[in-house]
Model the fold of this input.
Amino acid sequence: MLRLLARVLRGLPGYLWSGWGACASLFLLLAAWEAVAAFYDPLILPDPLTAFAALWGLVEQGSAWPALAATARRALMGLTLAVAVGSLLGLAAGLSVTASVLSRPLVTVLLGTPPIAWLVLAMLWFGMSDGTPVFTVFIACFPVVFASALQGTRTLDLQLRDMARAYRLPMGMALREVYGPHVLSYLFPAWVTALGSAWKVTVMAELLASTDGVGAALAASRSQLDTATTLGWITAVVGCLLVVEYGFLEPLKREVERWREAPR
Done:
């Protein structure tokens, strides 16, 4: 683990330098926001500086961090359960043709059911507790992770598997050098997708079934017709998501998928 962390840190400068393209796209989005806001009343669409000022006011008041922490806690709890259970069950189902065939209709049903339907059921089962957003996040993210783990296991190159058996590779080495990289190439995109869904679903659940968190704050700003504060909260959530994805998941993904790089 320490060696992996050291390699990630060594590659961090190059990764940050390559992030200029992502920063440029964000600035382009802000420029488009500024241009569109010039044609509307601030009550309809405030400009970015007004939204950032509203967010900074929430930070100075001390209400931003507790709300973001509550939302992050619920999102990460549901996401962790979905990643752990979905990955393990997907890998197990991928090892059996019968299990993979039987599980596909169930995954389709779970993917086709709107998260708002699960949210209503969760409100009936868990009430206004943390169980409502956590369960909704879990059930919304689980099929995405499960399907990716299943697909990664089923598409494993049989020639690589036979080669590992022919050379009698130790199980640890085979998992690390043969099976792991292939399966992780399917799991990482699913984890990133689940991360984005987790934040969105958590905020939606808090909007309807919580008294704290970003969702509850959005409900309060909506009732007050405070569009600037609403956009400030949205900006905070998107900023947290970008920090987690590009500050942690993306460098880890680049390190794990080093085998994709062509040899120099």
